[in-house]
Amino acid sequence: MARRVAVVGTGQTYHKSHRPDVTSREMIHEAVTAALADAELTIREIDAIVIGNMDHFESINYVDTYSVEGSGGVMKPIMKVSTGGTTGATVAIAAYYHVASGLFDRVLAIGFEKNSESDTTGAIITCSDPVWDRFSYSGAIPSLATEATAYMEKYGATQEDAALIGERDRNHAMNNPYAHLRRPFTVADIMNSPMLAYPIKLGDICPRSDGACACILAADGVAQKIAPKPAWFKAAAVRHTYTWFGDSTDYNKGLVSMQRASKDAYAQAGITSPVDEIDVAELYLPYTWAGLKWIEDLGFCGPGEAPKFVAEKNTHMGGKLPVNPSGGVISTNCIGATALLRVAEAAIQVMGKGGARQVPDVRNALATGFGGCFWTDVVILSSEKP
Amino acid sequence: MDNAAIVGVAQTKYERRKKDQIFADLVFDVTRAALDDAGLGIDDIDSVVTVSNDFFDGRTISGMAVGDACGGQDKNISTVSGDGTFGAFYGLMRVLSGYKATIVVAHCKGSEGSLPLATNGMFDPIFQRHLGIDAISSAAIQANVYLTRYGIREEDIAQVSVKNHGNARRNPFAQLPMEITVADVMKSRKIAEPLKLLDCCPISDGAAAIIIAGEEVVARCKTKPAWIKGVAHCSEDYLLGDRDLANPVALRDAARRAYKMAGIRNPLAEIDVAEVLEPFSYMEPLWLEGLDICEPGKGFRMIDEGVTVMGGKLPVNPSGGALSANPVLVAGLARLIEASLQVRGDAGARQIKGAGTALAHGFNGPCGQSHCVWIVGGNR
Amino acid sequence: MPTENAQGELLKVTFTHPMPYDWSIGLYGSRFFQEIKENRRFIGIRCHGCGLVYVPPRRVCGPCFTELTELVPLSDTGVITAFSVVNYPFIDPNTGAQRPIPYTYGYIRLDGADNIFSHIINETDLNRIRVGMKVRAVFRETEKMEGNIQDIRHFQIIG
User: N or C: which end of chain C has fewer CB within 10 A?
Assistant: First the structure.
């Protein structure tokens, strides 16, 4: 059976829209160095590496072999996994299985992206089916816009309800020295920002960032010697439900992949009442409406209840279940690293290393990845060894 | 290690162009065939690993194309971007972590993209890519380094092509079964000095699938299991100029760790058959050196000495190898499939008599930068 | 020349070459485009497990994991289930140039199908387009058809 596994160190670069001072390889090195320092390990003590990004953002084939000097992978086992927006969580989960299998004791997980090196929407369009969808597809925003429209029509939610998510996360980012966008941002600012595709405005969506993130995972028995308070994996669940865009559009059903993945994760973790048992959540929310609709799919509140749940500040810092103390994806989005940042930030919360963004007394922290064809990855970390 | 096994395998016939099938069609076919081979249903599978590459497929998130086709819609699924031997390794890790059975599927249609451009993408965008270097020209550099170092003649490496295309005649899945001579190889069109057309793999379309299972599922499969004895991977440095291209150090490291897991002390004596990924003829002897099957610089003698031919002490690539079909990424999984079939005794006309232990190998990156080595056995 | 780590101008290398592909459409996809050319209508495929009709036709039903074989003729009409008037500029990877905006990306449930088909709707005035409106495909002239998605010019609102 599986060995117990914990995150014992994290590292991330600072995030900017453009890092002309470093190549991808050098940027990866910054994150790896920071993670090793956090865990007080040297690269010699790392047994294997898992890395991921999205190829066409930098146009580098085989980034696992390209990046070895930055990742520390020279004469080490290294593997690349890649699943779109979910990549970072996919990397963390792959690293988890490396350790859980009993084959490796200390594994480095790396996600990165230099979104400045290509046209982000152009690169995202190439994820659509070349025969059927690429001619008309225009990136992630229109499909999210239709999801938002369906949610507003079904429950009477308003654009201001969604804008509050943006205000919350952007204010949280003020506490995170690594966040990309660190300026106060209000509901009014978002409402006044330019309309991109109704009802999504510029202030409702994530930026594109350059950045990298690394996490170190270790096995039971090893982890305790590295970290005073390891962040133990209680659950890792993935649902990449849809293959065809045209099959994924019944938005009234909610985000099916997130419902299924979180149900699986809660079962693994023995969680029956998420809102009571989860202390903090780092969610991959690429746009504001996701902060309403998807917390319903996670079971944080009932269908249609999210606007009220959020307005009552349950998900703000100091609330019942703070969401995105880091500032989330609305503040920082280096796509291949984004979901790993969620896992890293969840680990930081469990390990009590959050500084100004620390939520007190975190026992269970939940992280999600989102991407592909409305896909979800879920990780639950805990201060208690399962 | 002996608590997980390969219980089902399937591959398409490899062809230059499969016009009638999209990626999902190929994967759907091998998924069902692998389940049939194992005697399992899709509900017996609780974990899925797909293998694909965005450059070769011409699609970001290339794994998205095959989720339905491998039955992954409501299962824990992931995608390895790299050779199939690496995807299979991830599949094994999941089984060792508690999943009952993982299906690993790989697809590639070399016919649809531009392999020179896609493999040019492996090289450093600032210092190398504009030189036009790709998989073939970098391989030619490696071949030159290797041949020069040990005084190997072009005729010596041409023998690999003769042997492997000849072996392919007994493999119904191979793309290029051929009865050729060293003279034919030497006469074939020069591609990049010293490599000639018949020293190089073809462009191929195809897909493959394997099912890796833990003991509980193994017990109810209809097929004889190929027990996984050892597996390891390792990468060396990136820039070609930083490497000794005639000394595959990462392969040697991976091989030694895999042997240790499998309890193998003398690979030449203890391994009965090997399948190595050799898209270029010179790679087979070079990889045999990296695998400690022979000493450095001695790999090219193995055919003359009758070691690696059918009927030899350690036949290499009875399937015909990647020289006879090279759907990139799938090709490594095909090596593992062949190794499994050999230890099962199901390799048909190319069966090595009494094959109890088999080696399979795949790699990623330019000139074999990152290698993965598997040892499978017919008995626990 | 200074040898210390003096900060000079930060340079970049630009790579703009296209990477060509030649994707197969497959058996059912090819039938789909042939049907458009011959009969100016769509075809879908029915799953015998769950009864759903998928368009474009494909070989496997994801939820049922069963082989699909029953092609079913559809018409050339459908209903808008969602749309978005795209206003932001981006590089179109199909052409390497900026795609003309605004344009309307539409989700259309073709009559007789259970999933949706995405294409362009030739209406960018938000006052004249609504979810639930009926649309009809406008095809290219038959002799100009090439067997690809652009054999459908766009969908047009018919009420």
Answer: N
Pick the closest to residue A98 from A81, A113, A75 (CA basis): A81
**Chain A residues touching residue C94 (CB < 8 angstroms):** 134-135
Please give the share of chain A, as a percent, with pLDDT higher than 90: 88
ipTM of the complex: 0.98
Largest CA distance in chain B: 56
Residue C153 is part of which domain span? 26-157
Largest CA distance in chain C: 75
Q: How many domains does chain C have?
A: 1
Please tell me the distance in Å from B205's CA to the nearest CA on chain C: 11
pLDDT of residue C69: 96
Give the residue from B179, B7, B177 showing the smallest Cα distance to B103: B7
Cβ-contact B362, B332 below 8 angstroms:
yes
Q: What is the DSSP letter of A310?
A: H
B296: in domain: no
**Confidence (pLDDT) at B286:** 98
Query: What's the confidence (pLDDT) of residue C5?
Result: 63
The whole-angstrom separation of Cα B30 and Cα B9 is 8
Torsion angles phi and psi, residue A13, rounded to 5: -80, 165
Residue C145 lies inside a defined structural domain of this protein:
yes
Asked if the bond preceding C56 is cis, omega within 30° of 0, the reply is yes
Provide the phi-psi class of A313: left if phi over 0, else alpha when psi is between -120 and 50, else beta: left
Contacts of C86 in chain A (CB under 8 A): 138, 141-142, 197
**C27 vs B contacts (CB less than 8 Å):** 20-21, 25
Is the pLDDT at A1 greater than 70? The verdict is: no
Element (H, E) at A144: helix A140-155
B144 within some domain: no
Burial (CB count within 10 angstroms: exposed 0-12, middle 13-18, buried 19+), residue B28: buried
Helix A290-297 crosses helix A256-269 at what angle (to 10 degrees)? 50
Q: What percent of chain B has pLDDT over 90?
A: 98
Domain that holds residue B63: 4-113+203-218
Query: What Cα–Cα distance (Å) separates residue A17 from each residue in A213, A276, A331?
Result: 16, 37, 11
One digit per residue, pLDDT tens: chain C, 159 residues?
555 666 678 888 888 777 889 999 999 999 999 999 999 999 999 999 999 999 999 999 999 999 999 999 999 999 999 888 888 888 888 788 888 889 999 999 999 999 999 999 999 998 999 999 999 999 999 999 999 999 999 999 998
Residue linked to tokens 């991407």 = A371
User: Range with the lowest mean pLDDT among A79-88, A256-265, B126-135?
Assistant: B126-135
Strands A364-371 and A210-219: unpaired
Type of residue at A193: S
Q: What are C103's two structure tokens? A: 């344009």
List phi, psi (to 5°) of C108: -125, 125
Q: How far apart are CA A229 and CA A209, in angstroms?
A: 31
In a domain? residue B106: yes
CA A385 to chain centre: 23
CA distance C8 to A240: 46
Cβ proximity of B95 and B54 under 8 Å:
no
> Does the residue B19 lie in any domain?
yes
Residues of chain B with Cβ-Cβ distance to C23 below 8 Å are 22, 58, 112
CA distance B154 to B81: 34
Residue of C101, C118, C126, C146 to mutate, interface with A, max A Cβ within 10 Å: C118
C-beta atoms of C60 and B69 within 8 A? yes
Whether C112 is in a domain gets the answer yes
Sketch out chain A's domains with CATH numbers.
5-120+210-226 (3.40.47.10), 131-206+237-382 (3.40.47.10)
Q: Has residue B343 got a pLDDT over 70?
A: yes
Return the CATH number at B10.
3.40.47.10
- Which residue in chain B has the smallest CA separation from C18? B117
Residue B151 has φ and ψ, to the nearest 5°, of 65, 35
